[in-house]
Design goal:
By secondary structure, the chain is α/β, with parallel strands linked by helices. It contains 26 helices and 26 strands. A hairpin with a 2-residue loop joins strand 16 (471-475) and strand 17 (478-482). Helix 18 (525-542) crosses helix 20.
């Protein structure tokens, strides 16, 4: 029935589309004319994209107009909106809003939120009822990484039911998985743990490095010290997913716009080191800095020398300066030394801080003295072009943010940055410079990778699904087809297969390919079995009535990161359920004995270690046993399977094989597979043991019959089928595995003792790869 086949192909294409990551699209479309005329074209388009998405992140570098973008986003949504910003930024946003004819109020409590748009600071969030807001903006949202975990969790919980959310930061957040996880969780896109499970792999045991030819993700550490990197096969999918909810740009041309008016001025970095004879109390001589306490002690001891150097820079210079300090005593001393200065400390009242920053912007003070965590986020201080770091801490982000207060688009003068510290703190400076170079390279790589996806998002264009061309190679009694099994199987005649033997891929995202057609690339079990059902149904259709399908499976370890608990998932049970729903009859299963010590070495499972047995056996478990599930197609078998008459079995061997527990199968009895592993594969391919395949073939098929494997891998099932006088049809999606499968099938053909294929039934002809098999 061609109509049915065509309808099923359309159904499958729609399913593949559903596997793609989609923009949220919780908002609505607006036109260019709806956006304030003051915004540049790239800002206009970002606003329209963000309004359509409803929940989005803007990772735009300093000076690209995030304030105008977030204000227009809130105005055009028309929802009661609360903007949350660092204290130093809130008042500045109120001033900026006037430039695009908006009046917003700085508020401290819910009762003060009378207008459409209000702004407050992070310290005030407990004073608001978030159920009364239709939209929330996090300005300088990179603070999610810096603020305490309790506040971060509180923000995620408070905003979880807010319909519209916007996250804005200049920091290149996608280079840090911790911050990116905070962003996606606050936006409600997914949990941080889900993001890690989909796109990242535990890199603890790897030698991870970064260079221009390899995309290794910047590693972060969670509380347990686990380090992660982006899966190789997940790169393009990850960037496509990222661009569906975030826009990252360092300049307008990143998205294809003109950079006119957005060229940064020269940046000059001048490190200045003072000599010190610091010797720790517990050492004969200084070796290295031993942490924060030691670093602070060195800073205190070198204040006088550093101050003399600083006075030489500033005294007699009539230009404005910012001095970034790290210690309270530094700040106090500098304020007393430089008379035309204003000091802003954390203990100062909010109104004083805001007024002091505004007075400095207006030129009322020559020198601003403050800490990076107070004035280093979001403020526009391009009225000055000179700054001094009166010492450095270990935070590259603080260093970068402080520099960007002056080094901004629209800054007309070169920006001069002086770093004054002791010579024995040179390692801190070198570490910051190393991180700065790394961030530039990663950000450049990120922009390069994401650019085309972002352009499509900004233009509101959807990505198209890649088709795959089928390719067939034939030998004497075998045919291998490279393609998508869900499509290739439709070319095989009804009721033409005598037996199928295969091991389906388990749901393990982007381990071997990045294709949506890869059954393993499923976000959850629901999607996996939705995909697998197409194959189960097709194999049922092409199998002869009364004949069997042997499916190799195993239980799957449940991971805390992926599943929310540590234990075991009953994958065989789910496979049985899926087959029964498709119309198969479950006919039994065989268990394949495994060596728990070998499995412990291979999987690093603590549940199988001797040390766990002695520590707490309640956390131990048996080895995960492979199983061969046997399914029968309803109906009467027309050609009996006679293994004894065929000379392949006798009663004694049958008793052993029918026992239900298959012993004597070596775990290493497989085809050689290392050569088939692609450079980007996250795991070794795991071919089925040849002894397992042999038993399935001899128990459930006759010589000369046709054996199908829809997941061909490197050809193990086809190899054994040829060796034992069967015909083989093999389907494989991945190019590297397909090439290796062809080699193995040809080798099996050369080993065959006799030609069993001189009389091939026309129904199984391999003469024309374009016809149904």
């Amino acid at each position: 029935m061609p109509g049915v086949r065509g309808g099923e192909l359309m159904e499958y294409a729609e399913f593949l589309e559903s596997k793609r990551f989609r923009p949220l699209s919780l908002g609505f479309e607006i036109t260019k004319d709806d956006v304030h005329k003051m915004l540049f074209d790239f800002q206009n388009d970002i606003v329209r994209w963000a309004v359509k998405n409803g929940r989005a992140a803007i990772f735009a570098d300093t000076g690209l107009g995030k304030t105008f973008i977030q204000l227009e986003w809130a105005r055009l949504l028309g929802e009661k909106t609360l903007i949350i910003a660092p204290l130093s930024v809130a008042r500045q946003t109120v001033r900026e809003a006037k430039k695009i004819d908006l009046k917003i109020n700085y508020v401290r409590t819910q009762d003060e939120t009378n207008g459409l748009i209000s702004i407050t600071n992070y310290e005030m969030i407990d004073n608001f009822d978030f159920c009364k807001f239709g939209a929330v903006v996090l300005d300088e949202s990179s603070i999610l990484k810096a603020i305490g975990g309790q506040t971060k969790r509180k923000l995620i919980k408070l905003c979880q039911n807010v319909p519209y959310k916007l996250s804005c930061t200049a920091t290149p957040a996608p280079n840090d998985y911790i911050e990116l996880g905070n962003q996606v969780e606050w936006l409600g896109i997914c949990k941080s743990s889900e993001m890690l499970a989909m796109f990242f792999v535990n890199a603890n045991k790897e030698h991870t490095f970064i260079d221009g030819d390899n995309t290794y993700w910047k590693k972060g550490s969670n509380k347990a010290g686990t380090e992660w990197r982006l899966k190789h096969h997940a790169e393009s999918v990850f960037f496509r997913w990222l661009s569906s909810w975030a826009i990252a740009l360092t300049k307008p041309s990143d998205l294809g716009y003109s950079d006119d008016g957005f060229i940064l001025p020269p940046l000059n970095i001048f490190p200045r080191f003072v000599h010190t004879e610091h010797t720790p109390e517990d050492q004969l001589f200084f070796t290295h800095i031993k942490g924060i306490k030691d670093a602070h002690q060195i800073r205190r001891e070198t204040i006088p020398k550093r101050l003399e150097l600083l006075k030489g820079l500033i005294n007699g210079n009539g230009e404005q300066w910012i001095i970034w300090t790290g210690l309270a005593e530094e700040s106090t001393l500098l304020a007393n030394t430089f008379k035309n200065s204003i000091e802003v400390r954390g203990s100062h009242a909010a109104d004083f801080k805001a007024a002091a920053f505004e007075d400095f912007q207006d030129g009322k003070h020559q020198i601003l003295i403050t800490k990076g965590r107070i004035g280093g986020y979001g403020m526009n201080f391009q009225n000055a072009n000179n700054m001094v770091f009166f010492g450095l801490n270990y935070s590259w982000e603080s260093y970068y943010q402080c520099i960007r207060r002056e080094w901004r688009y629209m800054q007309k003068r070169p920006v001069n940055v002086y770093i004054i510290m002791s010579d024995i703190e040179a390692s801190i400076y070198q570490n910051i410079m190393r991180k700065d170079a790394m961030a530039k390279r990663l950000r450049s790589k990120l922009i390069d990778e994401i650019r085309e996806f972002e352009k499509g998002e900004i233009r509101m264009e959807g990505a198209t699904l890649n088709n795959i061309d089928k390719r067939a190679v034939e030998g004497k009694g075998w045919k291998a087809i490279q393609g998508d099994s869900c499509e290739v199987l439709k070319d095989i005649k009804d009721g033409s297969i005598d037996l199928s033997v295969y091991s389906p891929p388990f749901a393990d995202l982007y381990t071997y390919t990045n294709s949506e057609r890869d059954l393993g690339n499923s976000k959850n079990w629901g999607e996996f079995f939705g995909h697998y059902s197409f194959i189960i149904r097709e194999v049922l259709r092409i199998t002869k009535p009364g004949r069997l399908s042997c499916v190799h499976v195993s239980d799957i370890p449940a991971m805390a990161q992926k599943d929310g608990y540590i234990g075991v998932r009953d994958f065989p049970g789910a496979v049985i359920k899926a087959h029964k729903e498709a119309g198969w009859t479950f006919n039994g299963r065989a268990f394949i004995q495994k060596n728990p010590q070998a499995q412990a070495i291979r999987t690093h499972s603590k549940a199988l270690l001797f040390v766990q047995l002695r520590k707490d056996s309640a956390d131990s478990r048996p080895a995960l046993i492979d199983q061969v599930l046997i399914f029968k197609k309803p109906g009467e078998n027309q050609i009996p399977v006679l293994p004894v008459d065929n000379g392949e079995l006798d009663n004694e061997k049958w008793i052993l094989w029918a026992h239900g527990i298959w012993t004597g199968i070596s775990e290493t009895d497989t085809l050689q597979f290392a050569i088939a592993r692609a450079a980007n594969d996250e795991k070794h391919i795991c071919p089925l043991q040849l002894g397992t395949i042999e038993r399935c073939l001899k128990l459930y098929s006759n010589p000369g019959e046709t054996i199908l494997t829809p997941f061909g891998g490197i050809g193990s099932e086809g190899y054994q089928s040829i060796r034992y006088g069967r015909k083989a049809i093999l389907i494989e999606l991945k190019e590297e595995y397909f090439r290796e499968a062809i080699k193995n099938l040809k080798h099996a053909e050369s080993l065959a003792q006799q030609d069993l294929f001189s009389e091939i039934d026309e129904a199984h002809s391999f003469d024309n790869p374009g016809q149904k098999l």
